[in-house]
Amino acid sequence: GYVGDDVENVIGWLLQVAGHDVKRAERGIVFLDEIDKKRAREVSGHTHRDASGEGVQQALLTLLEGSEVMVPVGPRRGPNADLVKVNTKNILFILGGAFNGLDRIVEQAVNGAPGIGFGAPIASDQRIRHRVQPEHLIKFGLIPELVGRIPVVVGLDDLDEEQLVSILTEPRNAIVKQYTKMFELDGIQLEFRPEALRAVATLAQAQRTNGRALRSVLESCLLRIQFNLPDLREQGVDRVVVHEATVTDGSEPEVTYVVRNRKAKL
Q1: What is the DSSP letter of 114?
Q2: pLDDT tens-digit profile of 43-78?
Q3: Alpha-carbon dihedral of residues 227, 229, 235, 240, nearest 10 degrees?
Q4: Are 218 and 207 in contact (CB under 8 A)?
Q5: Among 227, 221, 224, residue whose Cα is nearest residue 242
Q6: Judging by DSSP bridges, how do beta strands 92-95 and 29-32 pair with one another?
Q7: Structure confidence by residue, pLDDT tens digits, 101-149
Q8: Sign of CA dihedral 12, 15, 20, 25
Q9: Torsion sign over Cα 25, 29, 33, 37
């Protein structure tokens, strides 16, 4: 658009990751996320500036079709920067996005206009998204030239409960690990029961935003007790246990107190 870097700078970032080795960069992988946000939108009249994203799609064409791009070497940019030539012919480009509304376009193209009554066809979102064709992407807002340079189109399913639980616990910077560390700063151990983690995943699935909803669900469960951590520490609390009812019903987590031995005065 009108802010940010040029499209060619993507190859410059790839070159930096490759250790400024041109041969390695020319066999690299570039993942462009949120490509659906660059859809072309119809604007009434011709006095408006092109802020629809179509210009970005046009700029991507030369990279995807395979061309030689001059990119700066190192962090220095400007007219006096050292440039190196990188061929994008063998670079794998992966374009991803949520494509909100594409399922309705596909469903209308496959099943026709939505019917009325008991015999009306009902399509599943999981099945519809695997039937995306290039003409559906063009109707969504991608220009035909860009769609023609994308030979493989794959629809992905939503994350299931087991995958959401693994996102909560397994990554190095998992959300559960972050909350555990924050509680440890106040000297309190935080523990999640397995059924509580599954309840968090179930509520996140209901919001239809996949892994982005996990933090909001945990925040609503632990926000109140987080503000009371200093007071709980002064009262002798050393552990907080989150049960399933804490997630589903909003009940208070279980707290345990440490037993301090006090010496009697003679």
Answers
A1: P
A2: 554 444 455 688 889 989 999 999 999 888 765 566
A3: 120
A4: no
A5: 221
A6: parallel
A7: 898 899 888 876 555 556 655 555 567 878 899 999 999 999 999 999 9
A8: negative
A9: positive
In degrees, rounded to 5, the angle at the alpha carbon of residue 78 between the alpha carbons of residues 74 and 82 is 45
CA 66 – CA 27 distance, rounded (Å): 12
To the nearest 10 degrees (0 to 180), the angle between helices 213-227 and 175-184 is 10
Q: What is the mean pLDDT of the chain?
A: 85
Q: Name 85's bridge partners.
A: 70
DSSP sequence for 127-173: HHGGG--HHHHHHHT--HHHHHT-------PPP-HHHHHHHHHSSTT
Local structure of residue 51 (DSSP, 8 states): -
Residues 23, 26, 29, 33, Cα dihedral to 10° = 130
Q: How many helices (H) and strands (E) does the chain have?
A: 13, 7
CB burial of residue 69 (10 Å; 0-12, 13-18, 19+)? buried
User: Helix-strand-coil percent breakdown of the chain, rounded to 5?
Assistant: 45, 10, 45
Q: What is the torsional sign of CA 243, 245, 249, 252?
A: negative
Encoding tokens for residue 24?
């390695």
- In angstroms, the CA 174 to CA 168 distance is 5
Report if pTM > 0.85: no
